[in-house]
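Format is sequence with structure; example below:
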Amino acid sequence: MSDHWLVRPDTIRKLWIGSIVALVLLVATDLWIHHHAHFGLDGTFGFYAWFGFLCCVAMVVGSKVLGAMIKRPDTYYDD
């Protein structure tokens, strides 16, 4: 029985390359867009790309911290 096409190593590599190319092209379009900055910093090149990435990292780290704070032992319901 053959593997599903999404789990083949060559397909995964092609998906990574395609995603990276798409992201680079989307950030490159920022060169042709005139920004109306409201706070100064939001007018910088690639602001929405790096701001979105940093927000995503902050949410992941925050969820890890929150998960550690409210974690219960495996035997919580057995007691």
